Amino acid sequence: MAFQKPSHTFTKIHLKALRTNNFKILFALSFTVFINMLSFSQDIKKPQDSIKPVVRDKAIVKVDSIINSTPLEKEQDTTLTDSIKPKKKELLEHTVVYHAEDYTRFNQKQQKLYLYNQARIDYGDMNITAGDITIDYNKNIVYAKGIKDSIGNYDQKPVLTEGSDVVEPDSLVFNTKTKKALIYNSKTEQGEGTVIASVTKKENDSVYFLKNAKYTTSENIDDPEYYIKLYKAKIVPGKKIVTGVANLFIYDVPTPLGLPFGFFPQSEKHTSGVIIPSFGEQNDRGYFLQNGGYYFAISDYVDLAVLGDYYTNGSYGTRWESSYKKRYKFNGNVSFRYESLIRSERGFPDYAKSTIYNLRWSHSQDSKSNPSSRFSASVNLGSSNYYQSSNNQVNVANRLNNTLASSVSYSKTFQGEPQVNLSLTATHSQNTQTQSINMTLPTLQGSVGRMYPFASSTGSKKGIFQNINFQYNLRGENRIATTDSLFFKKEMFDDAKTGLQHTIPLNTNFKIFKYFSVSASTNFNEVWTFKTINKSYDLDENRTVTETVNGFDSYRTYNFSTSLGTTIYGTKNFEKEGEDRKFKAIRHIIRPSVSYNINPAFDQYYDTYEGDEVVDADGTTRRQLLEYTRFEQGVFGTPGKNFSSSMGISVSNNLEAKVRDKDSTATEPKKIIILNNLNFSTSYNFAGDSLQWSPVRMNGGTSLFKNKLSINFSATLDPYALDNNNNKIDKFNIDNGGSLFRLTSGNINASWSFSSKGGGAKDKDKNIEENLRGGGRDDDMFGVSEDFSDQQYNEDDRNSGNDETPSEFYNFNIPWSLRLAYAVNYSNQRRQNEISSHSLMFSGDIQLSQKWSVGASSGYDLKNLGFTTTQLRFERDLLSWRMNFSWTPFGAYKSWNFFIGIKSNLLKDLKYEKRRQPDIRL
Fold first, then answer.
1. Are the CB atoms for 208 and 182 separated by under 8 Å?
2. How many domains is the chain partitioned into structurally?
């Protein structure tokens, strides 16, 4: 219950009637005289202020405010100290507005004002509405209560509003002088909950005392499914509720759960507090407490949660999580997780101790804060086996992740002619299976905008010369390749590679024969490096020795390319005059392109050294001469050794159709896409002495059923045959007795997401966000996080998807959703003719009733004939409570988790959780 300070009272009300009613005018005048007589009576009273005008039904009438309100007294001293008396403070500082539907009556003898039926009083920020309001001026008391309607129901209960706080009692008594009040059977909102009290005593503007009160977050205030009974309580509105003995009741049935005292924070701002942990048992680590700690509300812009896990065998973990946000500037979050895991008992052969950690940071900048510069970060790094070994239920959905990736970048744009762009980026890629780590610390990129030296002064660029343009690009990298065991150690920097690349492309484009577009370009490339190599052969050890040479070195390359392309449209109409066919037209768009590339040979950057001895066909023994370039281990590759003159051919296709729209009011046909793309590409090397044709690469994709089914496919077709040793030979496959092309690889990926017309089960946006931050999928195919106590309840999810109100026991319109992902890969490089991988993953949710929902995530390996990690989920909406059960029935992560707790964030620590973690893995 929340109150704001009532700043004024109703001690005396000066009544003025409407000027159009003579009887009321006479009554108002007599009432005014009566009030003045009271002010100058024979009794000695305390000085009182003049009474402000009162307004009835919003009509304000001004009266003379210069009235001597103090009694006349005989002065003992004939000399007046001050001829001008100070002006007294008025008793009522605000205009009083009142209204009643049936009648407004003032009893002069009893000094009481009666308002009946839809009665209302407005005074400053205080408002009282009720069926019956009585103001006693002698006792300075306001009485408000409801009235009975024609069938005997108690109606028009009082509503007391002070500022933004609302109290709805059965009746109330308010002393306008002491500002104390007695409120009976009140219902008032306090934060996310409601306080229902039989008797409430208002001590002053900021303290209230309650007796036999109920605190609940239930929506059904008249019959709450649960409440915490407060036998005695003290409320400081907007700050706290302090109670004595408190007991949990469920449907008016007391439970053994109770506290000798309680404290409920009610601040509208973020406040610090304890986070209650969840508990459970794990076979190989004993009993545990997880995700307990303390929340620090540092400021309005940043917070910090310090959480910890502890196991009775000595294992422990800690999590530091912080979120920050500044409106119109930036926002982000950072977390660090560390776990020290002990397995078995010391002295046993399976005893093991390990430490794992994970660092995540996400930062995004508001695009409007600084358009010329931008900083962003997405970091996810740590131990390669963190998600697989972690015992924390938060990490369940990311246990199957194979990669961890990070990127931190800053970019700056310098406006002008030409425009200059600079950026710094640090990247990280980590394979959790091989534990290999590749990083760039940092990558420097710079560019100068395109310049047109031959463009006309009018700005138009037409023709081959006017379209000539060039620009300058700079890229510098410091690459580090290391392993998980050397991560963040000085050894990881020993083999770092650094280089700079300067690129100046020169381009132009023009049209020929009106329909053909021609582009031509030449590119100059210069690479700087600070480490090169020198190779030699050690005759004693019979091996090649590679030495690293520190020092600056560089090489320069250039190439030339041109391309010719056009677009071909083909349309077939199926409509006939007088007919309204469903399939109206089909359009095929073809974009063929031919390109020619020349890459000179830069053999001046290659050296030779004598290798091991070999015997020629004629029996002569000689030393083998080996060729290498000192830039082999450079960041940006090596200069081309062989001259290349090649032609590239590519064709892209797009297929669309027009059909009759199902909407009868639509005036235009509906366009659908049959094929988003279907692309073919290959190349021919004129300078090659064999295998001049490159394999034909095909890829395509389409979306069906209103973009719910997405299909992507690709294949590689090789025109050359294989010999008996499965090596490629310079002979076409068709000339070797085979087909025109030999399928060497192919894959198909399909994803299908569909649901009932009424919608699906509740969204899991929070869990999906957790998956993405951990480097996982953007769906629930691998399951969802099992930290149910940290899931915020969203009221929109509960009411979404169905306009009808189904039964709590049976939902005749059952919402459901299903997501499928299918992938198959074929490999036939060396006649193995095998399916390298073949899998089907699926997840779905069914809302059996308005309160019950079930979900599952699993997959099946069609090649190895086995199910992947499976998670079954059950959720029951218990009105103010939520019950969840998650079960992994088989596999390496076999476990279950049961949770029941209150939805409200304020009382979310009132919960019960029981978990069974994976068994000991021998």
1. no
2. 3
pLDDT tens by residue, 639-680: 998 899 999 999 999 999 888 887 777 778 888 888 889 999
Q: Which of 337-351, 432-446, 815-829 has the lowest mean pLDDT?
A: 337-351
> Residue 891: pLDDT above 90?
no
Q: Which residue range(s) make up the domain with 863?
A: 756-916
Alpha-carbon distance of 734 to 420, in angstroms, equals 54
Q: Give domain status of residue 748, yes or no.
A: no
SS3 call for 736: helix
Residue 870 has phi, psi (to 5 degrees) of -115, 140
Contact 176, 9 (CB under 8 A): yes
DSSP codes joined into one string, 412-424: EEE-SSS-EEEEE
The answer to whether residue 45 is domain-embedded is no
Give the three-state DSSP class for 571: strand
Burial of 435 (0-12, 13-18, 19+ CB in 10 A): middle
Residues 334 and 437 in one domain: no
71-100: pLDDT as tens digits: 434 444 444 445 555 554 444 456 668 888
Is there a domain that residue 102 lies in? no
Asked if 193 contacts 217 with a C-beta cutoff of 8 angstroms, the reply is: yes
**513 and 387 part of one domain:** no
Is the model more confident about 808 or about 502? 502
Element (H, E) at 172: strand 171-175
The alpha carbon of residue 487 and the mean position of all alpha carbons in its chain are separated, in whole angstroms, by: 30
pTM of the model: 0.66
What mean pLDDT comes out for the span 486-501? 86
List pLDDT tens digits, range 234-264: 888 777 888 888 888 888 888 888 888 877 7
Q: What is the pLDDT of residues 103-140, one digit of tens each?
A: 888 888 888 889 998 898 887 777 889 999 998 888 88
d(CA 631, CA 608): 13
| DSSP line for 82-134 | -SSPPPPPPS--S-EEEE-SSEEEEETTTTEEEEEEEEEEEETTEEEEEEEEE
What radius of gyration do the chain's Cα atoms show?
41
Q: Of 615, 642, 669, which residue is a domain's last?
A: 642
Single-letter amino acid, residue 633: Q
Cα four-point dihedral sign 102, 104, 106, 111: positive
Bridge partner residues of 356 (DSSP)? 339
- Asked if residue 390 and residue 504 are part of one domain, the reply reads no
Amino acid at 445: Q
Contacts of 660 (CB under 8 A, 6+ apart): 580, 581, 582, 583, 584, 669, 670
Q: Say if residue 617 is in the same domain as residue 513.
A: yes
Task: Give the per-residue pLDDT at 15.
Answer: 38
Q: Among candidates 400, 463, 473, which has minimal Cα distance to 433? A: 400
Nearest to 278 by CA among 912, 916, 897: 912
CA atoms within 13 A on the CB side of 363: 18
The β-bridge relationship of strands 240-243 and 720-722 is unpaired
pLDDT tens-digit map of 363-413: 999 988 888 899 999 998 888 888 777 766 676 667 777 788 899 999 999
Q: Is 367 helix (H, G, I), strand (E, B) or coil?
A: coil
b or e along 564-603 (b: 16 or more beta carbons within 10 Å of the residue's beta carbon)? eeeeeeeeeeeeeeeeeeeebbbbbeeeebebebbbeebe
Strands 96-99 and 54-56: parallel
Give CA–CA dist 145/168, Å, rounded.
Answer: 11
Kindly tell me the burial class for residue 177, based on how many C-beta atoms sit within 10 Å of its own C-beta (0-12, 13-18, 19 or more).
Answer: exposed
In a domain, 791, yes or no: yes
Same domain assignment for residues 409 and 375:
no
Tokens of residue 233, six digits? 């309580």
Cβ proximity of 520 and 561 under 8 Å:
yes
Q: What is the mean pLDDT of residues 764-773?
A: 61
Residue 799 three-state SS? helix
Token output for 428:
């990280």
Do residues 781 and 859 make contact, with C-beta atoms less than 8 angstroms apart? yes
